[in-house]
Amino acid sequence: MYIKKLKASFGKLQGEELILSKGLNIIEAPNESGKSTWSHFIRAMFYGISTSERSKGGSV
User: What is the DSSP string of 21-55?
Assistant: First the structure.
């Protein structure tokens, strides 16, 4: 499977887009720029959002 592009609209990622290339992709950016939010987004797309996360009412 090859994912070319991700679009997210939650948390800090309102309407943001991440373009990926084949192979290993590394997200490098300044603090508070949304790296962890991208990580949570990708995990949620593959595995879903846990019931405990939903009940927290967080951005994921």
Answer: -SS-------TTSSHHHHHHHHHHHHH---HHHHH
